[in-house]
Amino acid sequence: MSPHAVTLRGALPYALAIALGAVFLYAGIDKVRDPLHFADSINGFAILPYALIDVLALALPVYEIICAGLILLPPTRRVGSLALLLASAMFFFALLSALLRGLTLDCGCFGNSAPSRPRMWAELGLDALLVSGTAGLYFHSLFKPSRASRADT
Amino acid sequence: MTIVRNDERFENMGLASASIRMNSTSAASKTRIGLRIARDLGWVLVMAISSAILGLAINRVSSKPLPLGYQDPQQRLDAELTALIASPPLKPDPAQTITLAEFRSAVESGSALIIDARSSVFFQQGHVPGALNLARDNFAADYHRLSPKLKGMEDKPTLVYCAGGYCHDSRMVAGALMTLGFSEVRVFTGGWEEWSAAKLPVSTEMTP
Question: Does A152 fall in a domain?
Fold first, then answer.
């Protein structure tokens, strides 16, 4: 394998982490700025009881921002990517269930927009990409040999 | 022959012990991975709880806090209407709907009151010429602001629109206007989406 290929393979997780971190940072900041709209978006999914909607609307954006920060730092990347993997999977299944139930809503994932089913399908595709990216990053970090074990070999 | 047989036996024993070693290494590796995943999940749980606490704390110091105990948009609008008319609002029948052609004709002739029910952010970006911004999410304040223009217009045809076909804001605002005594209220369900897709005139002028 050429040294360039090795460098490229090594750089890929960093590039992926930066891209995912930027996406979740943007999404989190956007939701923090307008929690009422995000609460209305959560309500549109008709999944959660009213008692939990406000708590989720306040917690989820902070969670996204914290995880976006963690994923950028190599020592915390593994936990950050697992946290974002679980969040992306949750978004994916919530959106899929809304589409299958015939709902038309603004998912509130990336800012305010008019409720639209084509947009929901596009956001489902984006969620699938986020699930794949975070899963790839998590399993890469999980199975990566530690420095100690590499020194033994 | 015996020596050969012994060699084979030793060789087989060596392979078996290597296989046992490999199996135990593989089992240890699986356990290690399992423990890592369990530890990671524990950290995720800690982060989720911390995020909830931090989110609630940020909301307490926010200039526009989210009131705990969620109310949906219709409940919030009903609360604002109750404050406006000083009694619980009646539930009128849903307003009739109109097509783009009918809406366009009314806009061009200036024969109707045009109401944009979207939030002010979207209204500022572009709206139907001559429309007044009576946003669902800021209804009472907008109604007070527009009351000099709305006074005496209760019998005039009033056409309400919002973002597009699936938005509910136009229907909610239409219902609120009917509760407030407007008798000729119609909803343009195609909304801003259909108007702008038809490349019809757009205004960015703000109403006072």
Answer: no
Cα separation, B112 vs B127, in Å, equals 16
Dump pLDDT digits (tens) for A19-67. Answer: 999 999 999 998 988 898 899 999 999 999 999 999 999 999 999 999 9
User: Per-residue pLDDT tens for B114-158?
Assistant: 999 998 888 999 999 999 999 998 899 999 999 888 888 888 999
SS (H, E, C) B111-151: CCEEEECCCHHHHHHCECCCCEECCHHHHHHHHHHHHHHHC
Is the pLDDT reported for residue A153 higher than 60? no
Predicted ipTM of the assembly: 0.84
- Res B62: pLDDT: 86
- Sheet with strand B113-116: strands edge to edge: B96-98, B185-188, B158-161, B113-116, B132-133
Encoding tokens for residue A116? 């639209």
For residue A104, how far is the Cα from the chain centroid?
A: 22
Nearest to A58 among B43, B59, B72 (CB): B59
Asked whether residue A64 is domain-assigned, the answer is: yes
For residue A63, tell me if it sits in a domain: yes
Lookup result for tokens 């060596």: B14
Residue A36 lies in domain: 3-143
Q: pLDDT (tens digit, 9 = 90+) per residue, B20-56?
A: 665 667 788 888 889 999 999 999 999 999 999 999 9
> Cβ of A66 and B52 within 8 Å?
no
- What's the distance, Cα to Cα, between the start and end of chain A in Å? 19
Report if residue A149 sits inside a domain: no
Give the minimum alpha-carbon distance from A4 to chain B in angstroms, rounded to a whole number.
30
The radius of gyration of chain A from alpha carbons, rounded to an integer in Å, stands at 18
Number of domains in chain A: 1
Give this prediction's pTM: 0.77
Interchain contact, A60 vs B37, CB within 8 Å: no
Chain B residues touching residue A63 (CB < 8 angstroms): 47-48, 51, 55
Shortest Cα distance, chain B CAs vs residue A22, angstroms = 19
Nearest alpha-carbon partner for B170 in B129, B126, B131: B131
The proportion of chain A whose per-residue pLDDT surpasses 90, expressed as a percent, equals: 63
